[in-house]
């Protein structure tokens, strides 16, 4: 099973920079890459990036979706629409959405359900804050988020989980590989208890992954890919991460 490297561009990019980055990655990936790759640009750039990566091994992903199929939700995007414009993945429950938009585990679960119904693979994010970690609450927070955010019918084939310690996102700090291995094993165990076989479940690590630290993180037990923020905006650095996959 190949690792999955997903680039979360967040609220960055212009049509020109998106075109350059997507074209550059397509040229690097050629017919095959060491990892499965997904690009998650801001919603207004999805169609442009989708056109650039069409026919390549790179998949398209969105950064969020609404739980409803359609309706009066100004500014939101439905999972169905994302699916119809060519997305394969959608990130749900990113800590920035949990914080900036007050999204709860129940909200995240509803979005993941909508994503699956639309044929998308939700990349469901979980992770503890600095304070929670310092209080020794990492396991209980992860357990609550995984149990509360995953659709009841989640399987290892229809969802991806991203473990992203909030204190490591965009800070340059990364969890130790020992801590990452412990949390990933814990997530796999919770998943197995509630949803069955977890051996094939993709669990990405996210939090300041870059070319220079990717090899160690991606070779860590239980890590089957990365959700990459800042470094996904740099063609060379993102490609180093893809190449660092075991
Ligand atoms: C993220 O946004 O999911 C992320 C992990 O960001 P960064 O790689 O910049 O820490």
Features:
eight-stranded parallel barrel; globular; 246 residues; alpha/beta; TIM Barrel; 10 helices; binds phosphoenolpyruvate; 8 strands
Helix count equals 10
**Which strand-content bin applies to the residues?**
15-25%
Major β-sheet strand ordering: 1-2-3-4-5-6-7-8
Number of domains: 1
Please name the CATH topology.
Answer: TIM Barrel
Task: Describe this protein's structure.
- This protein has 246 residues and is an alpha/beta fold.
- The chain has a single domain (4-243), classed as TIM Barrel (Alpha-Beta Barrel).
- Helix content is 41%, strand content 15%.
- The chain contains ten helices and eight strands.
- An eight-stranded parallel barrel has the order 1-2-3-4-5-6-7-8, surrounded by six helices.
- β2 (36-40), α2 and β3 (58-62) form a beta-alpha-beta unit.
- The longest helix is centred in the C-terminal third of the chain and has 19 residues, at 177-195.
- The radius of gyration is 17 Å and the shape is globular.
- It starts with a strand and ends with a helix.
- The mean pLDDT is 97.
- Bound molecules: phosphoenolpyruvate.
